[in-house]
Amino acid sequence: MPIPELKGLLTDIGVEELGHLEMIGTIVHQLTRNLTEKQIEESGFAPYFVDHTTGVYPTAASGFPWSAASIQCTGDPIADLNENLAAEQKARVTYDNILRLVDDPDVIEPIKFLREREIVHFQRFGDTLPQSCKLFA
Hints:
73% helix; elongated
């Protein structure tokens, strides 16, 4: 990103997103660290447990492991900002879905916080588009 202010914004959001990964990893660890073998089997957690025990291994709910292949980047600032907007909305939907499925307040509150941050990121990315479009369109 050749615009210094936007470069700073992208860096700030990227750093915060790494913090989100840490928060999710901590939640998963706290929920799984004391599971009994019976709970592991009954919960459907067994396939994950066989490969990773209760270690945090980032995967989608479908079991597909996270990788850089899920990041879309064209090198075109306008296209990439629009991809970032879409990614923030997809993250918000994921958090909405988690909130529909859980009843543990120790999970709900941090997920609500993360959902709110995705909305802020979406707004911040949206704020960058007019300036980017003037320079790159």
